[in-house]
Sequence to fold (158 residues):
Amino acid sequence: MRSIDKESSAVCLLQSVDKYEAIVEVIEHCSVFSTIADRPSFIRQVIARERLQSTGIGHGVAIAHGKVKGIEEVHIALGISVEGVSYESPDHLPVHLLFVIASSKALQKEYLASLSAILRAVRSDRVRSLLLDLQHNQSKSAVRQFLSMMESQHFTIQ
Fold:
């Protein structure tokens, strides 16, 4: 696992090409999930949800998610795969941007706001391209804004 940014706790480079292994990789290596008391249970829940229906949304993006009891804020991490992860997306393309969201039943409003912010950002071809080549594009304003959102774990509806 290689970190995109030494200060980053929410973004990492993925080595896995299998979607279940990639999900585990994001959860285990992005420190935003370190405060989750029972990470193995969270991993099982995200994978169980993924087995029900793929969370690949197309255009190289997937947004895996699961509920965690007792957390007080939504946690989100991004795994970036240059090679691509086989993900059973509707467009049958590999996933290069894998978001993982931890939420709780009490945080439904915050979860939806976070999901909306991510979807708004990644609908842009330019933003997806800049994120995929993040190491070279960290100075671009769209990427800085997105990274700031990821690092602060503060997702607002604009």
The CA atoms of residues 29 and 63 lie 17 Å apart. The domain at 2-152 is CATH 3.40.930.10 (Mannitol-specific EII; Chain A). Residues 108-122 form the longest helix (15 residues). Strands lie at 2-3, 11-13, 56-58, 61-67, 75-85, 95-103.
